């Protein structure tokens, strides 16, 4: 799809173009739309609901994979599993299920915009871990928009990231741990540094007891301009719906890309690939909230965490390589939360070398940003040679 080099769309009508950074020269690609997404449906609406559980979703997608490699005689081919966003949650559960159920062992798993343990991102009362793990993304987004303190504006993104992460590890998290036992002097000192890193007013930071929620950051950074930054990609700006009389936040990065992706996908599938009669009559579900929602809430009195399934798969198959890819400006699956998850997975030393990480100066869909797409191609190609 034709976008500018930063990933921002042109006016409609939209145009599909050749992807010069495709990895088809490295491997065959098989895309699967799980039940409820794309054109995939169960036999009835009632039956459709039966697939909206973590277990049934994983089993159904796993069965598609088993049938595909059987039909096309690919059982002994190098197999890789890739997922994006909620697809990383699915991929981690899938690799474990396929190993245990069918003895299908993969060479590697690629996790694009990774979220495996939902306690790292779900903002709930008396649980400040998500605010800690989101903070580097807030700071980097403020740096991108030039809203940080003057002393940080000319710092490179890599040097700024290092300073922010050092602050989180050595000052921010330890002070939050103290709660109400934090002295006023210490609170003022930490709040001042937060303000310098994010550009958020000191008074707001103190009012929030040093903890920034996503909705607050999104709406506060450009409050004088009555604009908000994107959730999927904070490089995008849009008018905040609260200024337009709407309830709740809407994501300008989603708005910017939903139309182009929907139009191009439908046009390519229907006009060029000429999908069959059933598919042509259905709506192509670009993003189905019902399918996404159950990944968050199926677990009672806990948070969904499939990282332990990925750990299990790595222990059973010590040759399994994992590539974790995240964008700096992604608030949906913040990069520091993914790092935290893997740091606390307690993998044996000899298995930790099977983990690789790459980061991009873009958001959730880092490949819309041409320099990140070029880097993504190079990173995957290099990783494949090692995996």
Please describe what this structure looks like.
With 387 residues, the protein is an alpha/beta fold. Helix content is 48%, strand content 8%. The protein folds into 2 domains: 45-120 and 284-386, Alpha/Beta hydrolase fold, catalytic domain (Rossmann fold), CATH 3.40.50.1820; 129-250, no CATH class. It is built from 16 helices and 6 strands. The chain has a 4-stranded parallel β-sheet with strand order 1-2-5-6, sandwiched between helices. Strand 1 (80-85), helix 3 (86-102) and strand 2 (108-114) form a beta-alpha-beta unit. Helix 2 (54-71) packs across helix 3 (86-102), helix 3 runs parallel beside helix 13 and helix 4 packs antiparallel against helix 6. The model is unreliable at 244-248 (pLDDT under 50).
Brief write-up:
48% of the residues lie in helices and 8% in strands. It has helices spanning 45-50, 54-71, 86-102, 129-144, 150-153, 157-178, 184-198, 202-207, 214-220, 252-272, 277-281, 289-297, 307-316, 335-343, 349-352, 370-386, and strands at residues 80-85, 108-114, 227-229, 237-239, 321-327, 355-360.
Topology of helices and strands:
Blueprint lengths: L44 H6 L3 H18 L8 E6 H17 L5 E7 L14 H16 L5 H4 L3 H22 L5 H15 L3 H6 L6 H7 L6 E3 L7 E3 L12 H21 L4 H5 L7 H9 L9 H10 L4 E7 L7 H9 L5 H4 L2 E6 L9 H17 L1
Parallel strand pairs: 1-2, 2-5, 5-6
Antiparallel strand pairs: 3-4
Helix pairs in contact: 2-3, 3-13, 4-6, 4-14, 6-7
Low-confidence stretches: 244-248
| H/E element order | HHEHEHHHHHHEEHHHHEHHEH
CATH topology of the largest domain: Rossmann fold
**What is the H level of CATH, i.e. the homologous superfamily of the largest domain?**
Alpha/Beta hydrolase fold, catalytic domain
The backbone outline, from C-alpha atoms, is globular
Mean pLDDT: 92
CATH architecture of the largest domain: 3-Layer(aba) Sandwich
CATH domain class name of the largest domain? Alpha Beta
Oligomeric assembly: single chain
